[in-house]
Each structure stands twice: as structure tokens, then as C-alpha cells.
Design brief:
The protein is mostly helical. The chain is built from 9 helices and no strands. Helix 2 packs antiparallel against helix 3 (about 70-75), helix 4 (about 80-95) runs antiparallel to helix 8 (about 175-205) and helix 5 runs parallel beside helix 8. The longest helix is centred in the N-terminal third of the chain and has 32 residues, at about 35-65.
Length: about 220
């Protein structure tokens, strides 16, 4: 069975419609299989989901070893759902579809947005090891790291802007990637500055004061 997509519909919408028709018309004696672009879409979707989960796991393990804690990496990883929410909202707002390019852009967001949380949490931990109280440490860290966070986020957003604007030959198919990066970066930037300090105050454990900082002073 071959069919064309209606205007404004994606391959995902077409596969869902075919599955609904199959459940109504066919019984258990029939088997179905996808081919062509539909099969490629389903296979790439499952592969992207695996890559997304593997990237999250690897980043969590690396951060756990770096921070010697499971709580601080969890606080940082929670910036990813905020970025994904911003990415999906941007796709809906600009009328783009969830395709292979937007999925790749979502995976790229993991590395882009976690660096904001790393900057804040790492500096707050250093301040607490110097003897500063937790509330003052996280507030000072968020204020001190605001400029580098804004600079890096702005650089990422401007770098992805030509892709989102479909500048260049054969760039139309990659608009979704640019929209995902733009929306996810900006959305996570706004929320990270408020959510990360709040979660740090609630979940972060007591850190030992290091005497070597007193000797340095």
C-alpha cells in the first residue's frame, strides 16, 4: 500500500494513521511491515532514542566521577528536560516536524545545556569548601557565572541561527535542527538560572571545609 502525505502532515502522522487503519481493518492473520522512507524513519527514531539515553548516562557517570557525588550530577542533568521542553515548544511554534535533524539537534542540546549547570554547581562547591554558607555560595555562584553562561549560550544561539533561517543551499531540511538548538538553548538558559540554584539548595549535601584554603588566604 502506497500513499502520499497530506499538506502539513509528517511521516510520523502518516504512520500513526496507517496503524489505526490496520487495527480496524486487519485481524491477527495478517502481518504488516514498513518500507522506504517510513521504515527509515522508524529505525532512525529508535536509534536516536538509544543515543539520547546513552549520552545522558555517560554524562551522568563522568560528572559523578568529577564531583564525587550522585546528587550534584543529577541537579545538572535536570537541565536537559528543560531544554527538550523548549525544543519541542519551538518546533510547534514554528511549524516544524520531529524528524531526524531535529532529533540530532536534541542530542546536541545535552552537551550545550549541561555546561550551564556545571559552571554554577562547580563554583558553588568551591565556595562552600572555602567555608561559605550554602545559600550565599549558590547565589554568589549564579551571579558570578552569569556572564560566561550568557556568552556561551549567545554564541551557540548565533551559531545555529543560519540553520534555523535556512540560509544556504539545500538547508530547508535542516531547519528543525536549528530551531531545536535555538529554542532549547534560550529556554534552558532562562530556567537554569532559577531552577539550578533552587535544586541545589534543596538537595545538595554538606561539604567539608578544606583547611588548605585557609592557608592560601
Amino acid at each position: 500500500v502506497m500513499a502520499g502525505l497530506a499538506p502539513g502532515k509528517s511521516i510520523s502522522d502518516g504512520i500513526e494513521a496507517m496503524n489505526r487503519i490496520r487495527e480496524k481493518v486487519l485481524d491477527d492473520s495478517f502481518t504488516t511491515d514498513l518500507g522506504g522512507e517510513s521504515r527509515d524513519f522508524v529505525e532512525s527514531n529508535s536509534n536516536t532514542s538509544f543515543a539520547f539515553g546513552l549520552a545522558l548516562l555517560l554524562i551522568f557517570l563522568i560528572l559523578s566521577a568529577q564531583f564525587e557525588s550522585f546528587i550534584d550530577p543529577l541537579i545538572i542533568i535536570l537541565t536537559v528536560p528543560m531544554a527538550v521542553a523548549g525544543a519541542l515548544f519551538s518546533l510547534w511554534l514554528f511549524g516544524q516536524t520531529w524528524n531526524i535533524f531535529s532529533q540530532i539537534g536534541t542530542i546536541m542540546l545535552i552537551g550545550f545545556v549541561t555546561k550551564n549547570g556545571i559552571l554554577i554547581v562547580e563554583f558553588a562547591n568551591q565556595l562552600r569548601e572555602q567555608g561559605m554558607e550554602k545559600t550565599q555560595a549558590i547565589l554568589h555562584a549564579a551571579e558570578s557565572r552569569l556572564r560566561p553562561i550568557l556568552m556561551t549560550s549567545l554564541a551557540i544561539a548565533l551559531g545555529a541561527l543560519p540553520i534555523a533561517l535556512s540560509l544556504g543551499a539545500a538547508a530547508t531540511s535542516r531547519i528543525g535542527m536549528g530551531v531545536v538548538i535555538e529554542g532549547g538553548t534560550i529556554f534552558s538558559l532562562i530556567l537554569t538560572l532559577f531552577v539550578i540554584p533552587t535544586l541545589y539548595l534543596m538537595w545538595s549535601r554538606v561539604r567539608k571545609h578544606r583547611a588548605e584554603f585557609d592557608q592560601m588566604d
